[in-house]
Amino acid sequence: MAEVNKSSLDPLSALCKRRGFIFHSSEIYGGMPGFWDYGPLGCELKRNVKDAWWQFTVRSREDVAGLDATIIMHPKIWKASGHLDTFSDPMTMCKDCKKLMRSDQIADILADQKKKPQPKITGSDFFCPYCGGELTEPKPFNLMFKTVVGPIDDPQNVAYLRPETAQAIFAQFLNVTATSRMAVPYGIAQMGKSFRNEVTPRNYTFRSREFEQMELEFFIRPDEAVELQYGKVVTLADNPDLNGPVQDDWGWEVWHKYWVEQRKKFLAAVGLPPSTFVEYWQKPDELAHYARACVDIEYDFPFGRQELEGIAARSDFDLTQHQLHSKVPQTVFDDPLKQACKKLSDAEKDAFIAKTRTEWIARREKTLSAKAGKPVVLDEADSAALAANAEAFCRNLFEGKYVPHVIEPSAGVDRLMLALLCEAYEEEKLTDEKGKEDVRTVLHFSPKVAPIKVAIFPLIKKDPDQDRIAREIFNKLRKKVNCQWDVSGAIGRRYRRQDEAGTPWCITVDAQTVQDGTFTVRERDSMRQTRMNYGEFLAMMYEALEF
């Protein structure tokens, strides 16, 4: 294998440009930072990644439904979700060169440039990593793109391009629940474009201003509802079988770990071996105020270890916020829960309420203590308010009503594509039978996501029988998978072109094919050549494409 500079994206980005994976958006006009176009091979790779995610997450399960919501939604959705008030990055500007940048990324920029910080020459604590000039004080910069709906440019008509796909799922939760004939626990999945006006988009396609997400909101019963209905809540301490069928008595932490494992299985299935990514469990002081747990699955990109996707236990925060702002109840009715609660005596209900009050207060104090880095005790007013909320929550449970909690696996299509490209890229040193050395550039994509599945060549393009049979094979296969026809150049050169495209199999039709119907199948990674007939190849290919 030839040495590949793992700290640089330059060889990979050059290949992506040359072979039609990724182009700068609006390149003939100088491009636009943070925007990328996917060429012939790139759009096929992207489609395959999305199709694989949808097959794995939605179609192969009985407990997930799909949604395709609009990019522009009512602006009150972003008020309810907190994006209008808190979705911002700290922005600063150099007073000399006028460059804009995120103040929390200055150290990373310096590391990328392999520069040392400039000596302090003014009273500011920040210095421009590009020219050494003084920076302005950081200010919050909201990342949402604004637009205007309708012909009149008026503040009342302001809307936003969505910064994430998840909120549409929460806004349509009641409609999907009513029409999908599914009951909690179940999930709603969506893929689609999102937009974030990043201050400094960086690292090729990793941090862009326009990107695609693949998100699942999996709605579960509150642990208190599980306890009332099943008499217990299964926790991770019970060592549940996360590879077996899901169980109704799982608590939130089991569901969360279950989806972490599911996401890892998916990543491995599409070509990222488990040894190439790590789980990062956020510490209590790193969690969002509403989150009970969050795991980032991180990958070692050439520019460092970064988040590939996240799996968060978001409690009932999102639906409760939309219930508060829309005034539309987001509760579900769980008749088996109500029937279970009917069997409880008044004393048992009072004891359950008292237990829940105590647990809620203790949980809140634990969260605040983690954020503060020291013990925090709720004051009397806060304790009373939380106790009242806990009692109202329990009373609703006794009637079979609750706002579901949610586990959210959230992944970026573009980030996963970049990870797959980085993982697949290799410069392999070859030596022929005469001792001559050469370097083969190859993309080792999993067949499940490879842009081109099969390339078909007649060995001699001017041979009418070889051309006819090769065309017959090509026309049959392209109805099943994406194929490429190639008759240009020597057979070795054709193989190299397909290696750079990541094509798993090349079929060569030769003189023997005319005699017995078999053809040569050249496997990309091993370069091994095997003679097969059409049926044998089809069986092998389908097996490789299955999840």
Q: What layout of secondary structure does this protein have?
A:
Blueprint lengths: L9 H10 L2 E3 L11 E3 L1 H20 L4 E3 L9 H6 L1 H4 L1 E6 L6 E3 L3 H8 L25 E4 L3 E3 L9 E3 L5 H6 L1 H8 L5 E10 L14 E11 L2 H8 L21 H18 L7 E5 L11 E9 L2 E10 L3 H10 L5 E2 L1 H8 L3 H27 L7 H19 L2 E2 L2 E8 H12 E7 L5 E7 L10 E5 L5 H14 L5 E3 L5 H11 L3 E5 L1 H6 L2 E5 L5 E4 L1 H12 L2
What would your notes on this structure say?
There is one protein chain. The chain has 547 residues and is α+β, with helices and mostly antiparallel strands. The chain has 4 domains: 10-73 and 166-334 and 403-417, BirA Bifunctional Protein, domain 2 (2-Layer Sandwich), CATH 3.30.930.10; 76-147 and 151-158, Herpes Virus-1; 337-399, no CATH class; 452-545, Anticodon-binding domain (Rossmann fold, 3-Layer(aba) Sandwich), CATH 3.40.50.800. The protein is 38% helix and 22% strand. The protein has 18 helices and 23 strands. Strands 3-9-10-16-13-12-11 form a 7-stranded mixed β-sheet, sandwiched between helices. It has a 5-stranded mixed β-sheet with strand order 20-19-21-22-23, with helices on both faces. A 3-stranded antiparallel β-sheet has the order 5-4-6. Strand 17 and strand 18 (437-443) form a beta hairpin. 34% of the residues are buried. The model has no long low-confidence stretch (mean pLDDT 92).
